[in-house]
Every structure is written in C-alpha cells, then in structure tokens.
Write a structure and sequence with these properties.
eight-stranded mixed beta sheet, 8 helices, single chain, 29% strand
C-alpha cells in the first residue's frame, strides 16, 4: 500500500435535469463549455494544479461520453501507475447491486477505494461547477485550524441563499450552524459542495449512518459531525465560482468568457485548464467572414458572421449566416443564410439553410417553463432542423425534425419539439 496524504473524490454522476435536453443523453459534467472544454475539466485541472494526483471519479447517469472524455487521464497528467484517475461507477456486490442513492452514499460504496490509499484527508468535490481553486491552500487552512471537517463556502446574494446549504460561523471560522437550503437563511455564506474530511472522521460517520436512505453530505453527514461537537470550519472563497445548473446560468457563464476583460480567464499560464483534445486542425476564417468578440475553437470554419458567441470544435458556419449571443457546441453544421440569435445548439446538430432562430416575442414554454427560459432556443444533440423554418424564443428542439413538424414553417415562442424515432414525444 502506498500512502497518500490526500485523495480527491469527484462526484460526477448527476443528471442535471434543469439543463433540459442538453443532458438527455450525457451527465452534466460532460456538457461542453467555453468552446473546447467540458464542465468536469475545471475540477480535474484544479486537482492536478493543486498537486493532487489521485482522483476517484464517481459516475452513474449516462456515463459513456464522460468516460470517453476522461479516458486514463492523460490530458490532466493523471495517467499514473499509483493513483491517477479512476472511474468508479456503481457495481455489483456479493449480496446486491445498488445505484448511488445520495452524494455520501456514493462515497460509502467506494470506501474500499479510499482505504487502499490510507489517506489522512479526503477531498470531496462536485464535477459540475466552473471555478479555479488551489486545494492545497484549502488543506493548509484545514490543518491550521485542526479541523475535522472544512467546508469551502462563497458569499452569494441573500435572495439566492435559499438555494444552497448555508453556514453560520464565528470570527475564527468555526461553524456554529449549518442550514440545508433554508427558507429563511441566517447568512449568505453558501456551501460550494467542496469538503475536506479527516479520513478517520469521514469513515466513522459513513459507517454510523450507512443505513440512512439517500445518504447525503448536506442533509446527513455534515449535521452528524456538527452534532457530535467535532471542529467544523468554514473556508471563505472569494474567487470566481459559477453553478451552471440552469440553461440561463450556463448561457451567462459562456457569455462572460468573451467580455473584454473576462472575470474568468481561460488563458492564464500559471493555472491552465486542461482538456481531452485530440490532434485536430486549426480554425479557418474566410476572407469575407466577420468575427466579433467570440471564442472560435479548433477545426471550425466560419464563412458568415459570428458576434458575441462561443463556438466549439469542428463547426461550419455557412455563407450569409449570422450568429449572435449563442453557444454552438461541437461538430455542428450551420447552413447558409441562417439567423441564429440567443441559441444553445448541442453536439452533432445540423441547421439547414435559411433557418431563423430566436424570432418573435417572449412566451412561457408550454412543456417545461422552469427549464426553457431566458429567451433561449435550445437544440439537443444530433438534431436536424429543416431548411426555411422559423423558431421563436423559450423553445426546445430535439431529434431529426422535418418541415411537417413545424405548422406553417414556424415553431412559435414557448413551443417544444422532441422526437424519438418516428414519433413526436412533445410538440408545441
């Protein structure tokens, strides 16, 4: 056994249902972000930049694309003989085969993996946030406080605090109270879902609470440790951190990357963000093309206009087409003379000639009004949109659609077309 001072356990099995059709077939951490990256790249890059070379990635929901992306961890220098990155899906036991039923239950089911490295400390991470953090600084803080558990927290607007686990701490940072998504929060210091545990403390808590249904860190583990009187400390983080759990927040975080002075910088040499990029050709901007305030990734060809948008890898923008305020993921084809305004278009989709997206006035989405908001057009992966149709705001389209799916050639604002095989599951 080779002992590690600290290992990381990265929770990456969530669906991210508030991202709608973007996560129909992939886990939220595998969703593309910022052109060539995927959301999980930020946590993995933080690990290797912080000197953590042993990472267990706990997967569950639709893991294929995530597993393929991570591989054996080469882009993050995590292809190690001892340690490195290990994918940890739910697995069959002697007596049962169980899905992960909660964040802490997932750790409980992989206690043997942690034990094999005999760590002093275990770092618990989520795989679905955009941020840069030096976990070594967090560990130094944990040690200096002689803490049993340290929670990384960030100030949020008071009106948003009820969405998070909230901590109340004293002047020394010791946590006095922990409130899980309270209706009337006592502070605005929100849990980031990043914890350092002494392994001996975490192991005992997991064993004691092992029969608890849907065992969760915020609802069960943290309150249990607090009730035992263990020293729990709050580490206040004041850098950039974005929860991209909704389509609107996901769109906003991408758009922030193309500010003149972006709050979140992808280009810092001292803290690089690594990703799985195979050998691909460079981008191409045609002679008469126009590109303004945009991220254009490798192997993308632009023959039209791109304004204030983020384009992924392997995209083709046809002549006469104009893209504004949009996120176009990988391997997407935009035909000629299209207008794409405030859209999110997922991998492998084809938008044929003369399509207009984002026209008309706002209207509440009829299918999932809490998901398809913000005036956005959301297009799922491998979707085909036929030539000449017009699509309104707060709309969602997924599948190989035909002209017949659009009455009078229009999907009005608030409409949804989701196709499976030859059938339409949901329409306007």
């Amino acid at each position: 056994m080779i002992k590690k001072e600290m290992i990381a356990m990265l929770l990456a099995g969530g669906q991210g249902s508030r991202l709608g059709i973007l996560t129909s077939n992939i886990a939220k951490p595998a969703v593309a972000f910022g052109g060539k990256y995927r959301i999980i790249d930020f946590a993995l890059s933080n690990c290797i930049n912080s000197g953590i070379d042993t990472v267990g990635v706990l997967t569950q929901y639709q893991p294929l694309k995530l597993n393929t992306h991570i591989g054996i961890g080469i882009p993050w220098d995590l292809d190690r003989t001892v340690g490195g990155v290990t994918l940890l899906p739910p697995h069959e036991k002697n007596t049962s085969s169980e899905w992960y039923t909660g964040t802490a239950n997932a750790i409980l089911q992989n206690a043997g993996y942690i034990e094999s490295f005999d760590p002093e400390y275990v770092l618990i991470l989520g795989g679905d946030h955009i941020y840069k953090m030096d976990y070594e600084v967090l560990l130094d803080y944990h040690k200096s406080k002689k803490a049993a558990v340290t929670l990384a927290n960030i100030p949020v607007p008071m009106e948003e605090a009820s969405r998070f686990g909230i901590v109340v701490s004293d002047e020394e940072g010791r946590i006095q109270r922990f409130e899980e998504k309270p209706e009337n929060p006592s502070s605005n210091l929100a849990s980031m879902g990043i914890y350092i545990f002494d392994w001996i403390v975490l192991k005992e808590a997991l064993q004691t609470l092992s029969e608890q249904p849907n065992l969760d860190f915020g609802k069960h583990l943290i309150p249990y440790c607090h009730e035992k009187g263990l020293p729990l400390y709050s580490y206040e983080f004041n850098g950039y951190w974005k929860d991209v759990g909704t389509l609107t927040s996901y769109w906003e975080a991408n758009m922030e990357l193309i500010d003149i002075i972006p709050e979140f910088n992808l280009y810092e040499e001292f803290w690089k963000i690594y990703t799985n990029n195979t050998n691909i050709s460079p981008q191409y901007i045609a002679e008469n093309a126009v590109v303004e305030r945009a991220i254009i990734s490798n192997a993308t060809e632009v023959y039209g206009e791109v304004h204030n948008s983020v384009l992924g890898v392997g995209i083709r923008v046809g002549r006469g087409s104009v893209i504004r305020d949009s996120i176009i993921m990988n391997d997407v084809v935009i035909g000629e003379n299209c207008i794409i305004d405030r859209a999110i278009i997922d991998d492998g989709s084809t938008i044929h000639d003369n399509v207009v997206m984002g026209m008309g006035s706002d209207a509440e989405n009829h299918f999932k009004p809490d998901v398809y908001t913000g005036g956005l057009v959301t297009v799922g992966e491998y979707t085909e949109v036929p030539a000449g149709v017009q699509i309104g705001k707060n709309t969602a389209i997924c599948g190989v659609t035909t002209v017949e799916d659009y009455p009078d050639g229009v999907l009005e604002s608030g409409g949804t077309i989701i196709k499976a095989g030859e059938g339409i599951i949901c329409e306007q």
